[in-house]
Write a structure and sequence with these properties.
The chain is α/β, with parallel strands linked by helices. Helices cover 29% and strands 13% of the residues. The strands form three sheets. A five-stranded parallel β-sheet has the order 6-5-8-7-9. A hairpin with a 6-residue loop joins strand 1 and strand 2.
């Protein structure tokens, strides 16, 4: 068969068309999964000026620091606080920091500086009580039982219904068959019907991978729904 035959040219055009569609689909998929595609960076001029002048004094404790005080969670004297952007988060964040984690290297401080009204940092074993608000809290941590972020609303609604059912159900009465599937029973958190029970708080563990087990297995964090996320560093294979 000649390479210039109509049949060969038609197949070639079809293959090229499929290749272009596949590449476009892959590009769209990558763009939709990119969590930083809408990230906007503020000017770094204030930090560049502070770096030129060197370490400065913390206005609270008097310690000598660069850029910010990692003890008081505030910018130092030569970094005007009004020039530091403030971030308004859609929910509260609790960070549980391992006591052996070096304060000066902890990136949890950055979150506290940029969103002071939404972020709280606790040093283990100091952990708040979450039991009464269990359906509003999730722990960001990898593991076999972790769920994806897009599925968290479904699991929170499921937990709420199970709790209500456990309190109200009469064990002597037979349960009625449900006509709808679980996916139909629970709505998305963005749905106006579910506005009364949204996810309100996320818990992060700030430590090395080798130190996480002590915090992760604490009874006060057990039962929290675990969420998967994108990691800067991959956990070791023998962590679980």
């Amino acid at each position: 068969m000649s390479l210039n035959s109509p049949i060969f040219l038609k197949r070639s055009e079809e293959n090229n068309s499929k290749f272009v569609e596949t590449k476009q689909s892959q590009t769209t998929s990558i763009a939709s999964e990119d969590p930083l595609q809408n990230l906007c960076l503020a000017s770094q001029e204030v930090l560049q000026k502070a770096q030129q002048s060197g370490r400065s004094k913390c206005l609270k404790c008097g310690g000598s620091r660069m850029f910010y005080c990692y003890t008081c969670y505030v910018p130092v004297e030569n970094v005007p606080i009004e020039q530091i952007p403030l971030v308004k988060l859609p929910l509260k964040i609790d960070i549980i920091k391992h006591p052996n984690e070096t304060d000066g290297k902890s990136t949890a401080i950055h979150a506290k500086l940029l969103a002071p009204e939404f972020v709280d940092i606790y040093t283990y074993p100091c952990i708040p009580e979450y039991e009464e608000k269990d359906h509003e809290v999730a722990l960001v941590f990898p593991g076999p039982q972790s769920i994806s972020i897009k599925d968290i609303s479904f699991h929170l609604q499921k937990r709420i219904q199970n709790n209500v059912r456990g309190k109200n159900d009469d064990p002597d009465k037979p349960s009625f068959k449900r006509k709808r599937t679980e996916e139909q029973q629970f709505c998305d958190l963005n749905d106006s019907k579910c506005k009364g029970t949204p996810l309100k708080k996320i818990i992060f563990i700030d430590s090395t991978w080798n130190q996480t087990n002590k915090i992760f297995t604490d009874e006060r964090l057990q039962g929290k729904k675990k969420k998967k996320m994108f990691f800067w560093t991959v956990p070791p294979s023998d962590l679980f």
